[in-house]
Amino acid sequence: MNAFFDGFVHSGTTLKEFVDQFDNALRKKVEVEAIADFNSLNQTIPCVSPSDIEKQFQTVYTNAKFKEVQKEVLGMIMCNCTHVNTQGCISTFDALDQVSIDDHVKTFKYSVYYNEEECNIKCTCQLFETRGILCRHAFRVCNMKNITLIPEKYVLDRWRKDIKRRYTLIKSSYDDLRSNADARRYEVVVKRCLKLATRVSPSDYHVDAFLRVLDDFEKKFESLTLESKSSSTKVKANVVADKGKKILSPHVVRGKGRPPTKRKVSAVEKGATKKKKKQTCRKIFDDESQLHDLPESQINTSTQPMPLGNEEVCDHTDAL
Length: 320
What we know:
- About 45% of the residues lie in helices and about 10% in strands.
- The protein has 10 helices and 4 strands, in the order αααββββααααααα.
- Among the domains are: about 50-160, no CATH class; about 165-220, no CATH class.
- It has helices at about 15-40, 50-60, 65-75, 125-130, 135-145, 180-200, 205-220, 225-230, 265-295, 310-320; strands spanning about 80-85, 90-100, 105-115, 120-125.
- Mean pLDDT is about 75; it is low at about 230-245 and about 300-320.
- The protein is elongated and about 125 Å long.
- Strands 1-2-3-4 form a 4-stranded antiparallel sheet, covered by helices on one side.
- It starts with 14 loop residues before the first helix and ends with a helix.
- By secondary structure, the chain is α+β, with helices and mostly antiparallel strands.
- One of its GO terms (cellular component) is nucleus.
- Putative transcription activator involved in regulating light control of development.
- Keywords: Metal-binding, Nucleus, Zinc, Zinc-finger.
- InterPro entries: FHY3/FAR1, Znf_PMZ, Znf_SWIM.
- Its main location: nucleus.
């Protein structure tokens, strides 16, 4: 749980934030897995040995899990197996495994049991039961028994790259089914099957009849042609686009920040601005009148004439 939500929630996260971050965590996990699936289907990790068993896992397993298998294949170099006894169809082997820990080599002893009739192999290290892959000790016994192909029961579907994950077809809060045709078809089929299951479940006779119909359909489905498959998987859309409909421009939406137009001004501010303009114009007019009343001798000849008249000054002030 901590590893799943690492980086998304903390001790101070509120309940609402947790719901949002839960969706973000799921979305991130799905994106990472989608990238990993793409790399597994389009990239091939080279084998480190000529073993046919390694090539088998290279073909079917994802890149991440195949790297773990390669570690066990390389570990066979430090593993020595000896045959102990055989009782009926079961053979027992002792596996001595040398592991390097802190620059020290330690030897561990394990027991491997091989059932030749059922082709079962089991090791006391329990790696297959815990990690889902066979251990180096089992690989060593397979080499001693000249086994070049591992039984399918030891190739788990969980790590296969050629299997469609069923949970990817389930509708989620962050997924848009309109962009995923497989998920849309899956939802339609599941809803119909749930409806039928509710109707037939009260009676054993109806359940048996329903299962017989499903068995017949499953047999016929195997013999369907590609054309019939494509036609049977079509889903009727709820809304059909009108090809002749004219596409209009989208509505103009106000963007963020300050609008480009002038801000709204109150009536009090408008009155104060007009009063200030009138006072400025009156002061300029009075100064010019006093200047004309003075004698020419008192007027400084170096004074430059004003570049703007009364009307131009007022207009310029209004513009400002």
